[in-house]
Amino acid sequence: MASWLAALILGAAPKRVWPALERHVPITRTAALAGLLIMLAGFFLGFGGFFTYAAQMAAANNSWMLRTLAAGGSDNAAFVPYGVSVVTLFVFLFFTPLGLFSSYLVVSGFLRAVSAWLDDPRGDPLLSALDGAVVRFLERRRQRNVREARERREGAAAPDVLITGHALGVSADYVVLASRRKAEWTAGATIMTSGQWYRLGEPYDLETPAGLRTAYPLTKFDSLEAVRRGIEYELPALTTRPARPPRRSN
User: Fold this and answer.
1) Is this model's pTM higher than 0.85 or not?
2) Cα 9 to Cα 38: distance, rounded to the nearest angstrom
């Protein structure tokens, strides 16, 4: 019983963390019930809150009407409370904290119950959205930190350098050393120059005296091959082997 009660509460957590929680409490099996209970809680909370709010509004409107009539106001003032009472429910649901909260509980609980019934259980939508925003923010910051750390190792941006594969001890005709990674240069791409086409091998990092470089091995086409992804590029002038041989970066 305790595990089921805990599951009903923890079921509001983002689905991303469910696998870790599922080892201790039956979150998936209680997802539909959790959504239904949230919906009912929102309904009864809003139901009681509305009648309290409506009674307060009625008392305030009646007091206003009596003061207006006592001050010699028009008899039409007596009809103002009736006009206000028509929109009392709307005002309560969308312009009061309790109304907004109860409306959210009803809607979110309904969506969670339906999703679970359709074999796609989910946590609380607001918590899930907040969790997703935090995860995306942290991932963007992590990627920025990794990129900045790499750029410090690479040093200032510099033109590409072309070296023979033999000079670097790799089975490729040439290797392009780039001071910055090339987004579309992935293994299997075809590098199309004006004089020759090359198959791009698996890129790897290389420590050089000038800084960290991304090495792109290029192998000439020996026969006609299907080109699935071509990249136009002109090779730089061939450079002789550097005085200090570079080494692969871990």
Assistant:
1) no
2) 10
